Amino acid sequence: MIEAIVERIENLPPVPNVVHELQDMYYMDSYNSSDIETVIKKDPNLVANILKIANSPLYEFSREIVDIRQAIVMFGLEQIIEFALASFVEDMVDFDLGLYGIDAMQFLKMAQNKSKVVTALVDKSKERFVLSNTAFLSDISKVILSNYAKEQQIAFEVEKEISLNALDDVEREYLGTDSIEVAALMFEKWNFDQKMIELLQHFKKRRDENQEALYLAREIVALDGTLHKERGEESELAARLVRL
């Protein structure tokens, strides 16, 4: 791993306690909307950011979501946790994705569609939660790589419809590493669930349903967040894509 990238990872801020509390709440499986609201309101900036994401063009609601309780009821804890993670990611570093030619909204669409795909492909709820969080964050390292490339004056051009698995190969060619390798180190830095780390490290082996689901999500979701379900037709999980 390139030393300058490792140093960037070491200097990342910790994941806010509120995010960990929300994740712990989900695993305890004993909570209600008031419990979720109480935790989120510990961080006023998070409240504002969640409402901003909930009212983004991605969801196209006819009316504005004006308070956090309304957002919690509409989206549920799993989605709220993803909003909290997205908020943290956007605030943690200079959010510049110029290397990839996409903006923050396209990145969020990409992250959310990966999460949506794995949720559709796996039936067990607790495994879905680990998978959806891993899928949502599996390309967060692109922020680190894009800033590193900008400093080093490295550039490449790819079609925005390229699959994320194929893009890993381009990254290795130009940067000497890829999003998955860097993201695994970020997960370790943030003390994420060991299941998330191991899934990220090994999913390309495609040896079980969870690995296949994550691989397929990164195959059919393009860099710009668009879905290309035809890319997954040969997967053993292809029949489940009708759930999307």
Q: Concise description?
A:
With 244 residues, this protein is mainly alpha-helical. Helices cover 62% and strands 0% of the residues. It starts with a helix and ends in a 24-residue tail after the last helix.
Count the E strands.
Answer: 0
Please give the share of residues in helix.
55-70%
Beta-strand content bin: under 5%
CATH fold topology: Hypothetical protein af1432
Instruction: Please tell me the overall pLDDT.
Output: 90
Number of domains: 1
CATH superfamily: Hypothetical protein af1432
User: Nearest-angstrom radius of gyration?
Assistant: 17 Å
CATH architecture: Orthogonal Bundle
Q: In angstroms, what separates the terminal alpha carbons?
A: 36 Å
Q: Class, according to the CATH hierarchy?
A: Mainly Alpha
Number of helical segments with 4 or more residues: 12
